[in-house]
Predict the structure of TOG domain-containing protein.
Amino acid sequence: MATINASTKISVPKKKPSIAVGAAKSVIGAKKPSGTAARRGSVAPPLKPATLSNASNLARLQESDSAGQIAHVRDLFRQALGEHTTLNLGSPKAASTTRDRAGAAADVAVAAKTLGVRWILKKCGIVDEMQRMLFPGGIEEFLARNADNESEMNGNGSTPMTGGLKASASAVSLASMDEVTTVTSANSLGTDTKRGKTTPANAREGCLLVIRALCQIVGKAAESFVVGAFLAAALDECASSSGAIREAAEDASTAIVALANPWAFRTVLCPLLLQSLKSTEWRTKACTLERLEQCASTASAQVYKMIPTLIPAVGNQVWDTKAQVSKGSRAALLAICNTNNNRDIKKTIPAIVNAMCKPSETNKAVSELMGTTFVVPVDASTLAMLCPILARALKEKLAIHKRAACIVISNMSKLVETPDAVAPFGSLLVPELQKVSHNVQFEEIRDEALKALANLTKALGDAYKLTDEDDQAAEMANEKAEVEAEQKRIEDVREAERLKEEAVQKREEEERKKFKEAMDAQRELTRLEAEEAERQRSEEETKREAARLSTKGGTG
């Protein structure tokens, strides 16, 4: 018989869990897109038509007359918005799902590709209806509210922002729509009331699905119709309370950016993306940062030219309280900086981005830059990446870090392309270099600061005047005038106080004099009264004495 003691080892075989056929295996540490609970991936699959994928149905649509084609396309669009239409009347009516709306949206895109994009979107009124759903108050009001977003958030007495890109949208009542253009239903009135959204949720999701389908199926022919204000609407809807709308908005914004011509980034996409970063909704900002990261790959040359504008705007989001926004801003900064093809700093870009996001990494980035030999000309985009970090390094406590920053500035300034490129950063670096050259106790470091200051001054040229005698004379004259004016003001104040004090003293003296006169008069009256009383008493005593004497003489 076997015995079991403390040293006995018992192995129990573990049964492996069975995995269903076709089930997706979870990956530990897999990255999930920000702002969504469960997505099928970072890139949405292309939409598939529900009915027009059949060649016979597409042929019947082509053979129909103009009125029939318009009616058919409008019915497809109503299906995309979640409406019950005259199509498929024989089939049972069921609640519209996202899959149904996506199929109808793809049908609209196939019809646009077959019959002509402009004819479908304009003649059938698809664009007008999408604008009505996504911009109830009109595009002008939508963009105007976007432009006022910053001033409202700064507190100028107006109503603060409560939604995404705009505070609210004035509703277009159902009664104001005619029979042809009515695309809403009382059964689909799911609204984001807290964000001022009054358009039905299914309608907004359907419009976003149509935009995505046009980008994916029609392609470049639809670029002029969807790239622009619809991107702002998609970013705005990323903050919706509905998960389906958020997913559709993210997919639509991704499709718009992928479709847009790279040359449209500077004038169309960049202003909208920068404006959406001022939103109060964190999901809108997170999606915007993802789109900026996408633009860095689709329009790298244009993003590179906009680095001086993009880095401050994106860098401010690093300190956002939402982890999704902070993490997205770091990824966007890295993608934006990687568009810089300057081979001198290409290897140090990760360290530069780390220094932007973590001030404690500044010295490490400057140390790597100090070992860089600058050969390629330095332009404004490269300076926009380096100057904020170098200015921060000049403020470090340890003198050795100041020396490293001075060496980098000196080497960098020798290869600046134009004075205009470095002019915006003159006021950032020059004062700090002057402080180092005057305040640091080590002569070697002061010499490096003076050398860097000389090279930077030479690079600045006339763009930043350091020793202009006329400017200095004018500044000294202004300071002298201000000092004289201040002295005169002080003298006037003192004279006014002296006159006021003299008036008070004079008034008090007069009051004391009047009081003294009153007291003297009162004492005189008291004395006269006492004398009168004494006189009367003497007269009475004299009378009494005379009466006593007369009485005594009569009796004797």
